[in-house]
Design goal:
Helices cover 39% and strands 21% of the residues. It has 15 helices and 14 strands. It folds into 2 domains: 146 residues, Nucleotidyltransferase, domain 5; 189 residues, ATPase, nucleotide binding domain (Nucleotidyltransferase, domain 5, 2-Layer Sandwich). It has an 8-stranded mixed β-sheet with strand order 5-4-3-2-1-6-8-7, with helices on both faces. The chain has a 6-stranded mixed β-sheet with strand order 11-10-9-12-14-13, sandwiched between helices. A hairpin with a 2-residue loop joins strand 10 and strand 11. The structure holds adenosine-5'-diphosphate. The site of adenosine-5'-diphosphate (ADP) has 13 residues, from helix 10 and helix 12.
Length: 403
């Protein structure tokens, strides 16, 4: 079975073509600057040469058409015909309270995703464009949607409610939803497998630390709290996002600097975090390089980033009354031994013992970085959200075919 995985943004579209016989990616790529006459399409068949084209791609339907053309291209293609694509899986950022697992797309599902536009105005409309573009190019093909929020739907009200007038939850669905759920779920299942223990027996904190960052308390396999909130702005300090701040700062700064709502939103989402404190970059590699050269602002940014992450790990340990496993994943979590080391060296009160050598090794793949004696197992597990989308799509389509 061949599954096309799509992550559609407002002006971009990433894709991976999976052969589910051995869960292998056979081709992948992205279209950027959709809507412009200089859109960029990159496509790479596994084992082949990357192709880059600059072209006028004005909307998502055209972007998908171009991708499909390449997938069946005589020279560069990986499929004989489009009919070989059995189903398409989409990443959807916001599933609200309506979706606690992945589902096959039908009219009801589409209507519900549209109803949720208000909660994710930058993301959900773009995902819908992706779904419509597939319908137009591949009429009748089965589509599945996989939500970033679904895994966190197990959170109890004590975690997901905000202590503000309850009417705002009832009228406007103001509550914590959490994001990166596909990643937190994947690494937690992988961690249990690697440790050879049932997920149901473990207290785990998973740290997805990329450009966006969140950590999740996973008690016996279920998300019981997570650092991102109603939007992906809450929680940890990130590349360009502030994470937690005193909410009273917003009206105060708006008044003092005469900012509009849009401007203050942009400040907190795009001009804060590592970028704001270092004054240099939102990219952890560049922060670390600058620190090596003695840059004090970069050091300050790094220290705040680490400190805020460590406080969350402490809070979630308290939330679960203990911690058995700590997992690091995503760009920074998988690659920055500096960050992992700084966090873990300050968690010795939990009986956590870092294996300095294992942490420092430049290797990829799943690995343990705690000592054999450590009371808390610390793992680095590369995330693979696309694989989860491909698997969910495969399973749901197979189930639907049985009926
Ligand atoms: P996204 O959230 O956009 O998917 P990623 O998960 O790819 O982001 O993470 C990007 C972040 O990972 C960037 O801050 C980047 O600097 C960081 N990163 C990637 N490789 C390294 C590395 N070797 N050392 C430190 N940070 C790294």
């Amino acid at each position: 079975m061949n599954i096309l995985v799509i992550n559609a943004g407002s002006s971009s579209l990433k894709f991976q073509m999976y052969n589910m016989v051995n869960e292998e990616v056979v081709a992948s790529g992205r279209v950027e600057r959709i809507g412009m006459d200089t859109a960029i399409l990159s496509y790479e068949p596994v084992g082949g040469k990357e192709i880059r084209e600059v072209d006028e791609i004005l909307e998502h339907t055209m972007a998908i058409r171009k991708v499909l053309e390449l997938l069946v291209h005589k020279e560069h293609g990986v499929l004989a015909s489009i009919a070989e694509i059995d189903a398409v899986g989409h990443r959807i950022v916001h599933g609200g309270e309506s979706f606690s697992s992945s589902v096959v797309v039908d009219e009801v599902v589409k209507k519900e995703i549209k109803r949720l536009f208000d909660l994710a105005p930058l993301h959900n409309p773009a995902h819908m464009l992706g779904i419509a573009a597939v319908e137009q190019n591949m009429p009748g093909v089965s589509q599945v949607v996989v939500f970033d929020t679904a895994f966190h739907q197990t959170m109890p009200a004590t975690s997901y409610l905000y202590p503000i007038p309850l009417v705002l939850y009832k009228k406007h669905q103001v509550r914590r939803y959490g994001f990166h759920g596909t990643s937190h779920e994947y690494v937690s299942q992988r961690a249990a497998k690697l440790l050879g223990k049932p997920l149901e027996s473990l207290k785990m904190v998973t740290c997805h630390i990329g450009n966006g960052a969140s950590c999740t308390a996973i008690l016996h396999g279920k998300s019981v709290d997570t650092s991102m909130g109603m939007t992906p702005l809450e929680g940890l300090m990130m590349g360009t996002r502030s994470g937690d701040i005193d909410p009273a700062i917003v009206p105060y700064v708006m008044g003092k600097e005469e900012l509009t709502l849009n401007e203050v939103n942009s400040m907190l989402n795009k001009h804060s975090g590592l970028m704001a404190i270092s004054g240099l970059s939102s990219d952890m590699r560049e922060i670390q390089d600058a620190m090596d050269k003695g840059d004090r602002s970069a050091k300050q940014a790094f220290e705040m980033y680490e400190y805020r992450l460590r406080k969350y790990i402490g809070a979630y340990t308290a939330a679960m009354n203990g911690l058995d496993v700590l997992v690091f994943t995503a760009g920074v979590g998988e690659n920055s031994s500096l960050l992992r080391g700084a966090v873990c060296r300050n968690l010795t009160y939990l009986g956590l013992e870092l294996d300095e050598q294992a942490n420092g090794k430049r290797v990829s793949g799943d690995r343990a970085i705690s000592t054999a004696e450590s009371r808390v197992q610390v793992l680095v597990i590369p995330t693979n959200e696309e694989l989860v989308i491909a698997r969910d799509t495969y399973q749901l389509i197979a189930k639907a075919a049985e009926k």
